[in-house]
Amino acid sequence: MSKEAQELGVESLSEVGAIDMILELIATRPIEKGEEVLLDYGDDWENAWKEHLIEWKEVVKDADFSSSAMVLNEAHLGVGKPVKPFPTFDEKNVDDEDEVAELQCHLLYDEDKIERRRNQDGTRTKVYPWISHPVAGESRLKTDIAIRGVNRVACIIMEKSGDAKSGYKYLVKPVMEVDGPGMLIRNVPHHAIRYIDKPYKNAQHAPFAFRHSIQFPDQIFPKAWRDLADDGNGKDEL
Fold first, then answer.
1. Are residues 52 and 8 in the same domain?
2. In angstroms, rounded to a whole number, what is the distance separating the alpha carbons of residues 112 and 123?
3. pLDDT tens string for the chain (238 positions)?
């Protein structure tokens, strides 16, 4: 039994399951342009992958996959493509899109410029104008990384205005305000809205997704680092 196993209270480290490991790769010669550094995952992984490919043909034969957030964002925000407006609440169809993804808006607004909209039931809804990020302006929001930051909340698009040439603007309601008069944010620009995948709804979490442990061949490790001999006579040198 190794010292590490004794400290963990197990017979061997294999009983622990996944163990974090960091590999540092050092090139012994210059890596030429176009070359790749590859790692052998082991025969078990390769055989499992081949079996998965065979089964995959049956999975996709009659499958009806829902669009992921990445696909939906590409449709509405893809570079070099015609601008496709986000659908309003009334325009949305009840389909798989709502099952796997939701809209989130980057919402900053001017609290000093409040308006009030009278509703049919006599209540009033607070309406605030959207404002750009105070540091770098709206250009800060034109990347996926920026839109994932603070002030991003799930939202419902109530109305839209403008066109592809002038730029679409939206009247949105934060989802947290859905049960009651709440508040609305107007003039939210197209680029401040993104789809995100709902937790565990992406295709990578589906039962048919490929999962298999990655194994490293013993040859890449020094002998002193490998498992001790099964006969119990090996010395714990680590």
1. yes
2. 21
3. 455 555 545 555 554 454 566 778 888 999 999 999 888 888 889 999 999 988 888 877 776 666 788 888 888 887 777 888 998 888 875 454 567 888 888 888 888 888 888 877 778 888 999 987 655 544 545 555 555 566 788 899 999 999 888 889 999 998 875 555 578 999 999 988 988 888 887 777 777 888 888 877 777 777 877 766 555 555 554 4
The partner residues of 117 in beta bridges, in order of sequence, read 125
Closest C-alpha among 109, 29, 96 to residue 65: 96
- Burial, 86: exposed, middle or buried (Cβ in 10 Å; 0-12, 13-18, 19+)? buried
Same domain, 178 and 124: yes
Q: Which domain holds residue 158?
A: 69-197
